[in-house]
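Handout, section B. The chain below has 114 residues.
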Amino acid sequence: QVQLVESGGGLVQTGGSLGLSCAASGSISSVFAIGWYRQVPGKQRELVAYVTKGDLVNYIDSVKGRFTISRDNVKNMVYLQMDSLKPEDKGVYYCNAAPEKFYWGKGTQVTVSS
């Protein structure tokens, strides 16, 4: 079973940037789509962005033009570059297949101050 470790979160001001990383303990090259999810208290975890094996990407409307997802199948890494951050982007960010099929990691906290 692949284990996932997310990192790169933190506290930034509105308009700032963060780069998230997700390290997988095993190969992700066969995973058709892998994505970043966000969870805030009281709400279900939502898929924010995903990237396919063919590098097709998809984003929820609220992050389009500001977030960029990428994957490295050699290093077994998934990245999320977040620019022009807004307070509503806050939450705990997780990576997983889309739809999810691995155990969830601990996530990485993103906080955006107004």
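Note. The mean pLDDT is 97. Compare this with the example in section A.
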